[in-house]
């Protein structure tokens, strides 16, 4: 893959003189509008050398002339071969970093994170001895055979499942398919997250089967789950007879936040999801972790459920909102903001005085600033004052290139909620 098909030097992308110097800041994408011209033949997935308007080498990557993201950076070293050793080196460097910052990821968590690991278009999650990979671009599809060989070499899994059923592949002209590409992969596996055990449906679950990006944020809710006898009294509420929090977990999926909340001392959790299959797996996970007696479930639309709870005057100590992405494109951000405002407003209205709102957005197109503004607008309408307790992003096994703010897709906030009336 280091030579052009006609045996000459790799095709060159010459960038415009008046472009922003994003590439030099580490941004891994070249947009179509930044390309002055293409020198040489170019088919989707071909390797290219990226040069500035003076012909000075900047990076090597792969390109897709059919995409608005025209090219993605693999290396900044001129002439570096893009082969099995390249992929092995990227995976070994990732392994070394994870060992220090996120030891759990050595067995469970994100193993490869696309652009942040200089293998754009490839995401790999680790579920013990099984890997689940997603190939998202035409360029990585061309490189996947060598990446697969390197994954086997570095991680030594018993099986690798390709969850190539995400819609973004269609935009790259790629088929949607789920298939075992190495060894044997069971349908359901057990994983460990913060010392708790969860069953994960690898083939039918969302994304790769489990949301590892929220692992550290799930651990962060621990201080919210106890101390409520005294806290309710401090804020003028009846103290009650139990110290643990009463929690509403909306969009509970397979129960990760709910089970963590109960493990950390919540008195009771109501877990809500529109998917009956997800709720069934959440029931299993609650039983598996010995917290079955303090949880109940509702198969319901979370928007409707929150409105119903508000209408009947329900009160909770903690409300958790971890919905799927509302903004599927930049054109849908305004609509998504209305959805985020609605659920956060309803959540604030059913919180006890001094209660905590745990709210997240995984919408790539919803900026952190816009998300915070949307929650604040909800607080104004709900006549609440918010105090920020935690403002976080994805877990540390989801690193981000400093010059690529677009990679900050997950927003996670914990607010203490007080009344203005």
UniProtKB/TrEMBL annotation:
GO terms for molecular function: methyltransferase activity; RNA binding. Residues 11-83 form the PUA domain. InterPro entries: PUA, PUA-like_sf, PUA_sf, RlmI-like_PUA, SAM-dep_methyl-trfase, SAM-dependent_MTases_sf. It comes from Alicyclobacillus acidocaldarius (strain Tc-4-1) (Bacillus acidocaldarius). Pfam families: Methyltrans_SAM (PF10672), PUA_3 (PF17785). It comes from the Bacteria. GO terms for cellular component: cytoplasm. It is found in: Cytoplasm. Keywords: Cytoplasm, Methyltransferase, RNA-binding, rRNA processing, S-adenosyl-L-methionine, Transferase. SMART domains: PUA. Gene3D superfamilies: PUA domain, RNA methyltransferase domain (HRMD) like, Vaccinia Virus protein VP39. This is PUA domain-containing protein.
């Amino acid at each position: 893959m280091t030579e052009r098909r006609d045996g000459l030097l790799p095709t060159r992308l010459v960038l415009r003189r008046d472009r922003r110097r994003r590439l030099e800041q580490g941004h891994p994408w070249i947009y179509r509008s930044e390309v002055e011209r293409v020198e040489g033949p170019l088919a989707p997935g071909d390797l290219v050398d990226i040069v500035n308007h003076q012909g000075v080498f900047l990076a090597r990557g792969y390109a897709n002339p059919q995409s608005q993201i025209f090219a993605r950076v693999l290396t900044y070293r001129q002439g570096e071969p893009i082969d099995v050793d390249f992929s092995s080196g990227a995976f070994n460097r990732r392994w070394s970093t994870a060992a220090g910052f996120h030891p759990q990821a050595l067995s469970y968590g994100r193993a490869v994170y696309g652009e942040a690991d200089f293998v754009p278009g490839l995401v790999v999650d680790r579920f013990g001895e099984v890997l689940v990979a997603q190939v998202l671009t035409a360029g990585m599809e061309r490189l996947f055979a060598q990446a697969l060989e390197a994954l086997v070499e570095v991680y030594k899994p018993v099986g690798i499942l390709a969850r190539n059923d995400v819609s973004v592949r269609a935009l790259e002209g790629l088929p949607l398919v789920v298939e075992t590409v190495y060894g044997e992969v069971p349908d359901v596996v057990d994983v460990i997250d913060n010392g708790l055990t969860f069953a994960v449906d690898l083939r039918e679950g969302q994304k790769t089967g489990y949301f590892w990006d929220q692992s550290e944020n799930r651990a962060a809710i621990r201080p919210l789950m106890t101390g409520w006898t005294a806290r309710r009294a401090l804020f003028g509420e009846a103290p009650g007879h139990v110290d643990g929090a009463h929690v509403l977990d909306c969009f509970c999926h397979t129960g990760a936040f709910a089970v963590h909340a109960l493990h950390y001392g919540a008195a009771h959790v109501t877990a809500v999801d529109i998917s009956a299959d997800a709720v069934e797996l959440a029931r299993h996970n609650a039983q598996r972790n010995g917290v079955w007696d303090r949880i109940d479930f509702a198969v319901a639309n979370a928007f409707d459920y929150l409105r119903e709870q508000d209408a009947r005057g329900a009160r909770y100590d903690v409300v958790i909102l971890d919905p799927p992405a509302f903004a599927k494109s930049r054109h849908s951000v305004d609509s998504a903001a209305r959805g985020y405002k609605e659920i956060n407003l309803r959540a604030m209205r059913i919180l006890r005085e001094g209660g905590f709102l745990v709210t997240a957005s995984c919408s790539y197109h919803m900026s952190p600033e816009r998300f915070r503004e949307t929650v604040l607008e909800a607080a104004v309408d709900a006549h609440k004052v918010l105090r920020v307790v935690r403002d976080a992003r994805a877990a540390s096994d989801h690193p981000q290139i400093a010059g690529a703010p677009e990679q900050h897709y997950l927003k996670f906030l914990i607010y203490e909620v007080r009344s203005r009336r």
